[in-house]
Design brief:
The chain is mainly alpha-helical. It has one domain. It is about 40% helix and about 0% strand. It contains 2 helices and no strands. The radius of gyration is 16 Å and the shape is elongated. The two termini are about 15 Å apart. InterPro entries: DegT/StrS_aminotransferase (IPR000653), PyrdxlP-dep_Trfase (IPR015424), PyrdxlP-dep_Trfase_small (IPR015422).
Length: about 60
Amino acid sequence: MRIYPKLIPDQPVYQNGLPHRVGRLTIAKQIVEKLLSLPVYPELEMTDLNRIVKAVQQVFCQ
């Protein structure tokens, strides 16, 4: 699960270009492919946490 699946310049709203020049973003593009965003907030219940852990285990412990 990724909260931000694309870099801002790659978002559809910017398909016609950005108002300013953007570099190649090589490192940022590599990072966004490996980034995992996990839900973290004060109201996170233990049942939600367990569900998140199980989902992560299914992906990484196959």
